[in-house]
Amino acid sequence: MNRVPSVGAMTGALLCICLASGAAPADTVLTHRDDLSEKDKAKVSKVMPPPADFGQSEPFEPMQGGAGTSRKRPDRDAFSRSDANLTFEEQHSFKVGNGLFKKLWASSPSSTQASDGLGPLYNARSCQGCHLKDGRGRPPRPGDEAVSLFLRLSIPPQTDDQRQALADRRILSVPEPVYGGQFQHFAVPGLAGEGRFDIEFEEIVVPLAGGETAVLQKPDYRIRDLGYGEMHDETMISPRVAPPMIGLGLVQAIHPGDLAALADPDDLDGDGISGKLSRVRDPNTGDLTIGRFGWKASNPTIRAQTADAFSGDIGISSPDRPDNFGDCTGGQHACRALPHGEQAHLGVSEAPDPVMELVTFYSENLAVPARRDVDDPQVLEGKEVFYRAGCPACHQPKFVTSRAADNPAHRFQLIWPYSDFLLHDMGEGLADHRPVGNASGLEWRTPPLWGIGLTEAVNKHTRFLHDGRARNLLEAILWHDGEAKPARDAVVALTPADRRSLIRFLESL
Amino acid sequence: MKSFKFGLLAATALFATPVLAAAPADVLSTYGDIAQAKFTDSLGTAKALEAAVDKLIAEPTEANLEAARAAWIEARNPYQQTEAYRFGNAIVDDWEGKVNAWPLDEGLIDYVDVSYGEESEENGFYTANVIANPTLKVGGETIDATEITASLLADTLQEAGEVESNVATGYHAIEFLLWGQDLNGTDAGAGTRPATDFDPANCTGGNCERRSQYLKAATELLIADLEEMVTAWTPGGAAREDLAAKGDAGGLATILTGMGSLSYGELAGERIKLGLMLHDPEEEHDCFSDNTHMSHYNDVVGIRNVYFGEYKSPLGNDVSGVSLAEMVAEKDPALAEEMKVKLDATLAAFEAMKTRAEGGEAYDQMLGEGNEEGNAVVQTAVDALVDQTASIERVVKVLELDEIAFEGSDSLDNPGAVFE
Q: Best residue in B407, B410, B411 to probe A by mutation, most A CBs within 10 Å?
C-alpha cells in the first residue's frame, strides 16, 4: 500500500501531503501519467490530497461520478440511468443495450431465431435477472431459489500442463472436470440442471464498545441433487452475488499507473496493507494487463466481463466466447448434443455483433448517482471517522481518470469510487480458499463503495460482501479481517455515536 | 454535444439580445401550454375510457368490449404525444413509469397461454396471476390480494420482486385486459379476449369479477396519475416552476433534449431498432392491441408540435403560440428549413408505416424475419429519426445551448459543479 495515509500515520501523512502539494512540482509527482500535460498534472495534484478539514465537504464531492453523475431523484431507478454527459447517439446505443440487457433469451430452437441460444445450462435467462435494477444481488430468501447468487467451481491443478497454463495466466483456475467453472442450477427443457445448494448460517456474536453487540451470520454452502454425478473430491467453491453495474466505464478509465502506484504487494512501507495488482491476459491482445472487474479482479475489461457473463451465466456465446454450449463440459454429453442458437445467416455465435458491443456500451455507461447530504454534520463526522479508522488505505477515495480513455465521456473525470481495485488478504472468515489467477484463497478485490447507500432504495435489501452474508453495512465492516483487521478493530472500539456517523457517511455515498 | 459544460457568458449574451421577436419566455410558455393541453386531453380521453370500461363491466357484450378498445386507442393518441416532455422534465421522468411501463410479463396479471411458459427462474411473479389468486405466495412472501385495489397494483405489484417487467399499472396493463395475449407471433392478428371474460354469468377464463375489479382499479389509477400531471402543468404548477427555474437557456435546452432523446435513443433505439435487429414480436410497444404504429406515430407528432408550437387537440384544446421553430428561423433560416424538411421526412416515414399497418400488415409483422419490405419500412423510419436528431443537434449549437449541462446544472457554484 503506497501513497495513501494509513491508520496511525493519518495526521502525519496529512501534514506531509500539505507540505508536498506546495513544494513538489507536478512533473515529479505524477510521472506515470503519460496522458496528462504539466498543467493537468498540477490540477490533479491539487485535487487528490485527502481533505485537510472535515468541517465541510470537498470541492466536487457530490458529483462522485464526475460529469456523468446522475442528479436525478435517488429512487428505485437510481442505478439505471445513463451517464449524464452522453450524446444523443450514445444514448441510442445505451438504450438498445438496455433492451438487450433486459431481454429474456429463449431456448433453441425458437420462432425468433435471433433471440434463442439460452443455456443449455444457465443461472439466469437475462442479464437483468441477476443484476436486478442494475443493482446488487443477494442470497436467496428462505424458500426461494438462488438467482443473483451462484457458485464458482474449480479444482487444484492436476497436471504439469495445467500448472503451466496457470503460471502463464492462460487460465486463471482449473474448472471442475464435469461441472465446469460455474454451478448452473437451471437447464433448458429436457436437460437436468447441475443441482441445487443450501445455505446454512452459523451465528457469531461480536461485542462492540459502548455495550452494543452485533450478530454476524457465517454461511455454509451444501451442494445437493447433483445432476451429473459426483464432483471431483478436491472441488473448491466460491459463492458470488451480482455486483452493482454503476460507474464501470469510469473504473475502466482509471490510468493503469494510478493502480500500480497504489500496489505494495510485499508491504515495503510496512503499514500492514499490501495491495496486489491482479495480472490477467487481455483476450484481445493476449498481453498481460491489470484485472479490475469482478470480486477477484479477474477481468481486465468490461467487454471481457460481459462475454464471460453471457457465456457462463446465460449460456449465450459471443464472438469473444464462441462456444455455443457455454459451460457445458465434454463430460456433459446430453448437454452438448442439444440444438444451439447460432444462425449462419445472422452471424457468428448466438449473440453476434452488435449485441456484444451494445451490451458492453450499456454496461460502461450506467451513471453513478450523486451523493446526498455531503454537508450534513453527521455525514462529515462519519467521513472523518472513515479516514481516522484507516478505511481509505484500501477504499481509496478518488482518482482522476485518464485523458486517453476510449469514451470521451469518461476522460479526465474526478471520480470517487472508494476502492484501489487491488487484491487484499481479508482473513480467514471471508476466505473462499479458491485461488484465481494471482488472487489467493484469502484475497479479494476492494469493491467500490459509491452508490452503496442506495442499495435499499434500488434493491430493497442491504446485503453486502461477495456472497451477501452481511445484512447491513456494519456487519460488512465487522467481517473485515486480515490486512483490514486494524481498521475493523478501530470501528469496534468506536463510541456508538461515532459508529452511527460512520454508517451515515457510507449511506450518503 | 460531446461536452455539456456550462457557458454562462455565451448563453447570457444570446438572451440579452433584445431584437428577437420570438422571445425565449414566450417559447417556453407555449411549451408549457402544449403540455397542459396534451395532459388534459390524455385525462379527458382516459375518462371516456373509464366510462366505456364501466359499461363493459355492467354489460359485458362484444360491442361494449369493442367500444372500450376503441376508447383505449383514442386515449393513447394524446398521451403518446406527451412523451416529448420526458428526458429533461424530471417531474415527468419520475412519473411516466407508472403509466407507460413496458414490456410486461402479463402472467402476473391474468391467465396466459401455455406457450408463455409456466415459470421464470428470475421472476417469481411470472405466472402469479393476481386475478385468479386472492393470496399470492412468492419466494416465501405472502401477498393479500383479496381486494384488487389501486393501492395493491401501485404499491405492491408494480415492479414486484424488483423485476421491471412486473408491470401492474398503466396503459399496457389495461391494454392486456382489453385484448389478451397476441399469440400470432409475427403473423396477422392481435389479442382476442372474449367479452365473456368480464361476464360473471357466463364467465370464460375464470374469475370474471376479479378481472373486472382489476380493470376498474387500473383505469382509476391511470386517471389519478394523469390528474397529477395536469396539475403539474397548470400555470403555477410544479412542472412549470421547475422549467422556469432553469432559466431561458436551460428551458430551451430541456425542449431540445426531450426532442433529441425521444427521437434517437428511445424511439429509434429501444422501441424500434432492437425489435428489428432481433425480429422479435415481443419487442412491440403496444403488442396486445397491435396499435404500435399509432404509438410510434404519435411520438413523432408530439416532437413536431413541441417544435412548431402548434397542437391540434381531439377535445378542442388547440394551442398555437410562439415557437422554437420561429426562433431558429430568425437566427438561421437555412437551418430552420433543414429542420422542417427533416421533421417532414420523419412524419412521412411514419405515415408510411401507419398506412401499411392500416392496410393489414401490423407492426409486429413488419419486424418479421424475411419480410424485406416490412423491415425496410421500419428501417426507413429509424433512419429518418437519426437524421432529424443531427439537425436537432445543430439547432442546439446555433442557439448556443451546447454548453449547457442537460441534467439541469445551471450555475458554476452549485452542487453539480464538476472538476475539469
A: B407
Is-contact A448 A422, C-beta < 8 A? no
Q: B418 CB near a chain A CB, below 8 Å?
A: yes
Q: Which residue of chain A is at minimal alpha-carbon distance from B5?
A: A67
Q: If pLDDT is split at 50, 70 and 90, which confidence band does B9 have?
A: very low
- Which of the pair, B234 or B284, is modelled with greater confidence? B234
Helix (H, G, I), strand (E, B) or coil at A346: helix
Rounded Cα distance between B31 and B13, Å, is 23
Contact between A317 and A350 (Cβ < 8 Å): yes
How far apart CA A341 and CA A345 sit, in angstroms, is 12
> Distance between CA B37 and CA B29 in Å, rounded?
12
Q: Tell which residue, A292, A286, A283, has the closest CA to residue A258.
A: A292
Flag whether pLDDT at B117 surpasses 50: yes
Residue A31 grid coordinates:
510521472
CB contact under 8 A, B265 and A113: no
pLDDT higher than threshold 90 for residue B35:
yes
Task: Please tell me whether residue A435 adopts helix, strand or coil conformation.
Answer: coil
pLDDT the model gives residue A28: 62
Beta carbons of B274 and A91 less than 8 Å apart: no
Q: Which residue is listed with cell 368490449? A: B65
Return the closest-CA partner of residue A489 out of A205, A273, A216, A209.
Answer: A209
Q: Is the dihedral of CA B269, B271, B273, B274 positive or negative?
A: positive
Residues 342-381 of B with CB under 8 A from A: 369
CB proximity A127 to B under 8 Å? no
- pLDDT tens readout for residues A225-239: 999 999 999 999 999
Q: How many helices (H) does chain B have, and how many strands (E)?
A: 15, 4
Q: Is A144 left (phi over 0), alpha (psi -120 to 50) or beta?
A: beta
- Angstrom distance (rounded) from CA B127 to CA B228: 32
- Cα A95 from Cα B273, distance rounded (Å): 10
Q: Considering only CA atoms, which of B197, B381, B354 is closest in space to residue B272?
A: B381
Give pTM, 2 decimals: 0.88
pLDDT in tens, A31-42: 999 999 999 999
Paired with A207 in beta bridges are A213
CA-to-CA distance for A107 and A101, rounded, in angstroms?
Answer: 17
Judged by CB atoms closer than 8 Å, whether chains meet at A88 and B261 is answered as yes
Contact call for residues A118 and A315 (beta carbons, < 8 A)? yes
The three cell numbers of residue B297 are 406515430
Q: Does B106 touch chain A (CB under 8 A)?
A: no
In the block, residue with C-alpha cell 454508517: A503
Contacts of A77 in chain B (CB under 8 A): 97
CA distance A97 to chain B (A): 8
A residues 426..455 contacting B (CB < 8 A): none
Interface A-B: count of C-beta contacts within 8 A: 160
Q: How far from A84 is each of A74, A88, A358, B340, B404, CA to CA, in Å?
A: 14, 11, 18, 28, 12
* pLDDT of res. B415: 54
CA angle B370, B376, B378 (to 5 degrees): 105
DSSP A106: B
Residue B338 to residue B391: CA distance in whole angstroms? 7
Q: Which residue has the cell 436437460?
A: A191
- Chain A environment of B266 (Cβ under 8 Å): 95
Q: What is d(CA B120, CA A386) in angstroms, rounded to the nearest whole number?
A: 42
- C-alpha separations of A374 from A6, A392, B193 in Å: 23, 17, 54
**Chain A: residue whose CA lies nearest to B392:** A88
Q: Which residues pair with A217 in a beta bridge?
A: A203
- Among the listed residues A389, A415, A418, the one whose alpha carbon sits nearest the alpha carbon of residue A262: A418
Nearest CA in chain B to A351: B278
